[in-house]
Amino acid sequence: MKTESRSRATAVAAGALALIAVVSGCSSSSSGGGANAAPAPTGAAADNPSAGASPAAPGSPAAGGAVSAAAWAKWKLQPLPAPPAPPADKPIKLTKTGQVPVFSSVPTTDKVVFVTIDDGQEKDPKFIDMMNDLKIPITMFLMDDAIKSDYGYFKPLQAAGNSIQNHTLHHPAMSTKTFDQQKQEVCGDQQVLTKEYGTAPFLFRPPYGDGANTANLNNAVQQCGPRAVVLWRETMQIHDMQYQGAKQLHPGDIILVHFRGPKDLKGETMTEMFGELLSRIQEQGFAVARLDDYIQPPS
């Protein structure tokens, strides 16, 4: 796979990026389409991180009892509030046919954010230990070129309740490809992920967010099986969050992270980077909820 910076430069040179700005990594900063972010938290909820928090719902990765203080201390972190019970009426409802929605946040007043992790290049066993200890729900958008060296690494994360979604075979800037090439990228990854993990992805994320709002990509996604295109509001760098607009989280924001290690993180490990992410979320009093719990798949 080409380096991220080279791919990004190619996409920009082609003038094909549909989004506003490019940030480091697999991402390009995007306000997305569809659902809008909720207003910034104010008042008691902003002052009290645990205000309104309720235990996680059974079956979610954060269920199974509260995470112990010792588990948070093991990773040198302050505890996050527990996520509320999943809404009975899912704010995002998907259909079996027709144009797929594009969204970068979830319409909710719950003081929650959603963590998504892309690619799959880094396969740090300590990250699985961290997720087992802290029970943070994540959604994985996996790309075959990055994961084919060890499909099995992601199965314990999936078994913990974290879904695996589509991120193309080879990570191209999609708007630089023909419709047939885009379809091959999406359908090919869909087939691999369904075979390896036993469940067909129902969400798709285009590399760099490129082409997200184009007719070609939407048609390709429709024909390959996913029923929504998922973008993001924030991206996590090595130590800092990169925001769009105001430098704060909002209820329902989707955050983009990557499976990366010391080679790409200037010597930092994935667990160290992820710990920094959780610290930024904790400082603003948010819980991490499971994205799937806020989406109604096609019936």
UniProtKB/TrEMBL annotation:
CDD domains the UniProt entry points to: CE4_NodB_like_6s_7s
Gene Ontology biological-process entries: carbohydrate metabolic process
The UniProt record lists the keyword Signal: yes
Region feature (Disordered): 25-60
Keywords linked to the UniProt accession: Signal
Signal peptide residues on this chain, from the entry's feature table: 1-29
Top-level taxon of the source organism: Bacteria
Residues of the NodB homology domain: 111-289
Gene Ontology MF terms in the entry: hydrolase activity, acting on carbon-nitrogen (but not peptide) bonds
Name of protein: Peptidoglycan/xylan/chitin deacetylase (PgdA/CDA1 family)
